[in-house]
Write a structure and sequence with these properties.
Strand content of chain B: 15-25%
CATH class of the largest domain in chain B: Alpha Beta
CATH topology of the largest domain in chain B: Ubiquitin-like (UB roll)
Shape of chain B: globular
Strand order of the largest sheet of chain B: 2-1-5-3-4
Oligomer: heterodimer
Number of domains of chain B: 2
Helix content of chain A: 25-40%
Largest sheet of chain B: 5 strands, mixed
Largest sheet of chain A: 7 strands, mixed
Structural class of chain A: alpha+beta
CATH class of the largest domain in chain A: Alpha Beta
Order of helices and strands of chain B: EEHEEEHHHH
CATH superfamily of the largest domain in chain A: Aldehyde oxidase/xanthine dehydrogenase, molybdopterin binding domain
Radius of gyration of chain A: 28 Å
Distance between the termini of chain A: 64 Å
CATH topology of the largest domain in chain A: Aldehyde Oxidoreductase, domain 4
CATH architecture of the largest domain in chain B: Roll
Shape of chain A: globular
Mean pLDDT of chain A: 97
Number of strands of chain A: 37
Number of helices of chain A: 19
Distance between the termini of chain B: 53 Å
Mean pLDDT of chain B: 96
Strand content of chain A: 25-35%
Helix content of chain B: 25-40%
Low-confidence stretches of chain A: none
Largest interface: A-B, 57 and 60 residues
Structural class of chain B: alpha+beta
Number of strands of chain B: 5
Strand order of the largest sheet of chain A: 3-7-1-16-13-14-15
CATH superfamily of the largest domain in chain B: Beta-grasp domain
Number of helices of chain B: 5
CATH architecture of the largest domain in chain A: 2-Layer Sandwich
Radius of gyration of chain B: 16 Å
Number of domains of chain A: 3
Chain lengths: 807, 166
């Protein structure tokens, strides 16, 4: 889109507050005054509260459940167990990944804190008291905690319900604890490349189990109206329409009798995509009691049961020539899915988009094989602020590239640059099946190198290493480099669906007679600021000031069907739908303008907020005038009104990328690190609101920092889970959080109507390997090749200890 | 369980409710008084989303019983704007500097910053970071929260806000 040049047009364009400006957020007006409306803020008359009794064991047969004491507590109206749920055929529920999951423990428990009984009471204190009084008698069973032992010949059988099933949702299973094997790429050609490789590396790169941990936990409020036969569900849903479809399929209710409403959401980061037992139990409890039932997770329940992320163990091999050109990539991933396969991936992608593992590099051949296994851990496997399994493999390739560079004795930046996909190669067909839409990696890397003074930093590091060897300092300096390519915007109907529904998204725009507008979308903001940015797209497209455009999301009764917000899909998919809907409005307005000005449509040109007659700019009709006319003066044969709907099926994914550099100082005697600098250059294509982009990048970097430097959900040998309260689970405070430097280049997506690619998750994807590479870089001159995440102080100290640095 | 009357001054007005002695202040505010600005994020007094101001101190309202606040002066986010609806400098600063995203930590963060600026009207960035370290945010990475508080400090002090490099 060409920017206007004449002064009046510039002034009019500024008034629109359209794309490219740092528009202040609409949402903040209510949030800064305590007037947000989150699920737990909603109260309905007669509302009850539900709470779970959970398993104390990781793997055990349930011999008996005694709910009598719980039921005897005054104020308790019902206690649900699997037996009660069987009466309505809901003891188990389908997962998004094609598996089934117990809603309440049916005969056995498979992970600690698994839901066993749901107590419903008149207030949340009574519900919690009574949940404690449920008595369960267990018969302990041996556990599987280490995913590498899940498929041992003598491993305990975890899923008795499917132990004899030879085929799962994604093909043959080779063991009763096996879920799927998924392969892509040319194995023979890849093996051949390794057979003749001059240099090869092979490393097990594990990405630990973590949790998205939004500040607001998962919660819902369900109200069943017996008279109308309708159910209303308020919930922390990133994808409200998907939830409605799940309810329709499970309950057999028609969609018009299911009202799913996502009000304000206190952060999601992937945690709020799935369907959890709390939702099902609340719905059943509301049907049983005839009253609304609220369920609010506490933090420990959140961290230990609803949706872990990662737990990917990636054996990563690179083949290269001695002079530093990569010739092949071979990756095997062991994926720990916990007790049920509840991964929130598009249905045909059991390992998400992990075949983006070739990253930003021109690998002539590659092969990827992924095995998913069951263990006695919580189910989940969500995309924690990333597209599906993209963060995991970005970590693998960026660590592996550093390890190979180290082996070859080449600087990590130079090694990457030598192997980048070049600008001329786009659109680029990767060896693992993707078509990268656009990129200019060399320019981005060069900008990062110059902005950070990278070469000088390397000189300083060398001097520090010499000083360290001489015993003059106990500090090590690490310089982390990462260059990531994301794959977001799921996705094209040809390869992306959830439960058979194509992953399009949608927008509906109504322009009212006075020239104000209402936009409704299938996406759902959880802090991304859609109410602000969606209006900016419409403002630029049809010339109505953003302040005159209201945006609504999250109510399935009013919003058009969309697949929701996760995997950085909103700007690539919903953003495109918005532009396309706006263009339909503009096209109709142009016909009305031509009729009013008595010219041919082709004689009109668009000028910021109006159509004017070519060569006669004094002859024009503004969008405000055209909106009014649409309701009283349309051309003969045209329907009145000015509304449009677009359902956008993207032709391809988008591929944001970025160059990150981290400078870190590490005290070898304490393991304490200090991030001296962190520079993040992001290219997300066209930038809709630079202020919001910067905010998204800051937030993503902070989450990446937390993951790389400390987050971990830990299971002991008995399957006891720890690290599940904020006492133990690392959420950085303002004191630990580094100061971020942001930068950008702009390489628009060629297939997106406005060229935007999405940005919210890039900083998480790119920063985790960048921090890890910084830690590893600090130690590599002492002979270390790979130190595993998370890099908390103790583990960093341990790495130093292992290298004999404390003698 | 027998109930007990808790009366206190909330945002300048006297309020009261009958609650169980074990009722936490955050539940008294949210459930009994429908004051839903303060949020619950962790149940273990780490996240600070429930922060309110009690008799001149920042307090995590999930950490004390309502009865402990009986007779106290309590300020929540709902009491920050002036009677005429004019926003407090912090409320303005958080919007101007993009100091919030999902909004869940914001009420607690603003109430904490309010007390911080009373105690230290001209804080350094490092002092702000230490001063809000009891309040967690998962969205912003804090950098713009620091700017928002500096913006408010400048405005309260009648000075012009200048963005300093941290």
């Amino acid at each position: 889109m060409n920017a206007p040049t004449d002064p009046s047009a510039i002034e009019r364009a500024e008034k629109l507050q359209g794309m490219g400006c740092k528009r202040k957020r609409v949402e903040d007006v209510r949030f800064t005054q305590g007037r947000g409306n989150y699920v737990d803020d909603i109260k309905l008359p007669g509302m009850l509260h539900g709470d779970f009794h959970r398993s104390s064991r990781a793997h055990a047969r349930i011999k008996s459940i005694d709910t009598s004491k719980a039921k005897a507590v005054p104020g308790v109206l019902a206690v649900l167990t699997a037996e009660e749920l069987k009466g309505v055929n809901l003891a188990w529920m389908p997962t998004l990944a094609g598996d089934v999951q117990m809603v309440l423990a049916d005969g056995k428990v498979l992970f600690q804190n698994q839901e066993i009984a749901f107590v419903v009471a008149t207030d949340r204190y009574i519900a919690a008291d009574a949940a404690d009084l449920v008595e369960v008698e267990y018969e302990e069973l041996p556990v599987v905690i280490d995913p590498f032992k899940a498929m041992d010949a003598d491993a305990p059988v975890l899923r008795e319900d499917i132990k004899d099933k030879k085929d799962g949702a994604h093909g043959p299973r080779k063991h009763y604890n096996h879920i799927f094997n998924w392969q892509i790429g040319d194995k023979d050609l890849t093996d051949a490349a390794f057979g003749k490789a001059e240099v090869a590396t092979k490393d097990l790169l594990s990405y630990q189990r973590v949790h998205p941990c939004p500040l607001e936990t998962c919660q819902c409020l369900v109200s069943f109206d017996k008279i109308k036969g309708e159910i209303t569900i308020y919930g922390t849903f990133q994808a409200p329409h998907v939830i409605r479809t799940v309810v329709a399929l499970i309950a057999g209710l028609p969609e018009h009798k299911i009202h799913v409403i996502s009000p304000d959401i206190g952060g999601g980061f992937g945690n709020k995509v799935g369907a959890y037992p709390g939702y099902i139990c609340s719905a059943v409890a509301s049907i049983v009691t005839g009253l609304p039932v609220k369920w609010v997770e506490d933090r420990i329940e959140n961290l230990s049961t609803t949706s872990f992320a990662r737990d990917y163990h990636m054996t990563t091999e690179i083949a290269a020539t001695r002079d530093g050109r990569v010739t092949g990539l071979r990756v095997h991933i062991l994926a720990d899915h916990g007790a049920f396969d509840a991964c929130a991936d598009p249905s045909k992608w059991p390992a998400g988009f992990s075949n983006i593992v070739t990253g930003s590099y021109d690998f002539p051949v590659a092969h990827l094989s992924v095995d998913g296994v069951y263990t006695n851990k919580a189910p989940g496997g969500v995309a924690y602020r990333c597209s599906f399994r993209v963060t995991e493999v970005a970590y693998a390739i960026e660590r592996a590239m550093d390890i190979m560079a180290q082996k070859l004795g080449i600087d990590p930046v130079d090694f990457r640059v030598k192997n980048f996909i070049t600008r001329e190669q786009f659109p680029y067909q990767s060896a693992l099946g993707w078509e990268y839409d656009s990129g200019d990696y060399h320019t981005a890397m060069q900008k990062a190198v110059e902005a950070t003074g990278y070469r000088k930093l390397r000189e300083e590091q060398k001097a520090k290493q010499e000083a360290f060897k001489r015993g003059e300092t106990r500090d090590l300096m690490g310089i982390g480099v990462a260059f990531f390519t994301e794959i977001v915007g799921a996705g094209p109907s040809k390869n992306c669906d959830i439960l058979g529904i194509a992953m399009f998204d949608s927008a509906e725009i109504r322009v009212h007679p006075t020239g104000r507008a209402l936009g409704r979308m299938g996406s759902k903001s959880q802090g991304q600021g859609h109410e602000t940015t969606w209006a900016q797209i419409i403002a630029t497209e049809i010339g109505i000031p953003a302040d005159d455009i209201a945006i609504e999301e999250g109510n399935t009764d009013t919003a058009p069907y969309g697949l929701g917000t996760y995997g950085s899909r909103s700007t690539p998919v919903t953003g495109a739908a918005i532009a396309m809907a706006a263009r339909k409005i503009k096209a109709k307005a142009q016909m009305i303008a031509a009729f009013m000005l008595e010219v041919h449509e082709g004689d009109l040109e668009w000028d910021v907020d109006r159509f004017r007659v070519k060569g006669n700019p004094e002859q024009f009709k503004t969008m405000t005038q055209l909106a009014w006319a649409a309701y009283n003066k349309v051309p003969p044969g045209m329907e009145p009104g000015l509304e449009a709907v677009s359902y956008y099926d993207p032709p391809n994914m988008t591929y944001p990328f970025g160059a990150y550099i981290c400078v870190m100082d590490i005290d070898v005697d304490t393991g304490v690190h200090k991030v001296r600098r962190f520079y993040a250059l992001d290219d997300c294509g066209t930038r809709i609101n630079p202020m919001i982009i910067e905010g998204q990048v800051h937030g993503g970097l902070t989450e990446g920092y937390a993951i790389a430097m400390g987050q971990e959900i830990v299971y002991d040998a008995m399957g006891n889970v720890s690290g599940i309260s904020l006492m133990d689970y690392f959420l950085p405070t303002a004191v630990e959080t580094p100061i971020w430097e942001t930068d950008y280049t702009v390489t628009p997506s060629p297939h997106h109507p406005i060229g935007a690619k999405g940005v919210g998750e890039s900083p998480n994807v790119g920063s985790v390997p960048c921090f890890a590479n910084a830690v590893n870089d600090a130690f590599k001159f002492l002979g270390s090749t790979h130190i595993a995440m998370p890099h908390d102080n103790y583990r960093v100290w341990q790495a130093a200890e292992n290298l004999g640095l404390h003698k | 369980m027998s109930k007990i009357n808790v009366t206190l001054q909330l945002n300048g007005k006297s309020v009261s409710a009958e609650v169980e002695p074990r009722t936490l202040l955050i539940h008294y505010l949210r459930e009994n008084l429908n004051v839903t600005g303060p949020h619950i994020g962790c149940d273990t007094s780490h996240c600070g989303a429930c922060t309110v101001d009690i008799d001149g101190k920042s307090v995590k309202s999930c950490t004390i019983f309502a009865v402990q606040a009986a007779g106290a002066e309590v300020l929540t986010i709902e009491g920050m704007a002036g009677a005429d609806g004019k926003l407090h400098a912090l409320q303005e600063g958080f919007r101007e500097m993009h100091g919030l995203q999902c909004g869940y930590c914001t009420p607690g963060m603003i109430i904490r910053a309010y007390r911080l600026l009373k105690e230290n009207p001209t804080p350094s960035d490092a002092e702000i970071r230490m001063g809000i370290s009891g309040n967690l945010c998962r969205c912003t990475g804090y950098q713009n929260i620091v700017k928002a508080i500096q913006y408010a400090a400048a405005k309260i002090n009648g000075a012009e806000y200048k963005e300093a490099a941290e």
